[in-house]
Design brief:
Length: about 200
């Protein structure tokens, strides 16, 4: 098994930089494991689809979510104008710092995504993961890096933060309302892609 998230800075592949009003977040993308999710994201980014879009849902120690031009959590669509299938890989997991597709259930991917911001694995999960047959390297990574294993095989992982995780953590700390929407907009000014 190849687990590119365990040493993401050493991987070769396209990269995306989120230019936000809190600073830059650089992400390595995984087109081999999640080709449609990556194509969708890159095309939208290059077309300016995410320019000025907010992170509309922020939950500390869980994730920051964006990608909806309406900023409501109910908008956005894929580059194909319809939802597309999940791309689950045995190589990728919802570790802290992963970039994953948000959805409304199986096979409902559109334009929304989230970055996992969970630095600690909740108690009891390691034994559950062992029972479920997780590779030991991934269990170890979840225990040392954190993450949200309950989202594995529910949300497609298609990237991983390689620089600017401190900005993700900063965004996760902003004040939010009862719907987890930041009181002051956290804005994606634009996203640049490097092949």
């Amino acid at each position: 098994m190849d687990f590119p998230q365990l040493q993401p800075a050493q991987q070769v592949g396209p990269k995306a930089t989120f230019h936000t009003n809190h600073g830059d977040i650089e992400v390595l993308l995984f087109p081999t494991q999640a080709p449609k999710a990556v194509e969708n994201f890159i095309t939208h980014a290059r077309d300016g689809y995410f320019d000025g879009v907010i992170f509309h849902r922020v939950i500390r120690d869980f994730m920051i979510q964006g990608g909806d031009p309406q900023g409501t959590g109910f908008g956005g669509e894929s580059i194909w104008g319809k939802t597309f299938e999940d791309e689950f890989s045995d190589d990728l997991f919802n570790l802290n710092g992963s970039l994953s597709m948000a959805n409304g259930g199986p096979m409902t991917n559109g334009s929304q995504f989230f970055i996992v911001q969970a630095s600690q694995l909740p108690d009891g999960f390691a034994s559950q993961m062992q029972a479920a047959g997780y590779p030991q390297e991934i269990i170890d990574a979840y225990q040392t890096k954190g993450g949200t294993p309950w989202l594995d095989h529910r949300h497609t992982v298609f990237g991983h933060v390689i620089a600017g995780m401190e900005k993700v953590n900063e965004i996760a700390e902003v004040a939010t309302d009862a719907s987890d929407k930041p009181l002051k907009d956290v804005v994606i000014n634009n996203i640049t892609i490097i092949d």
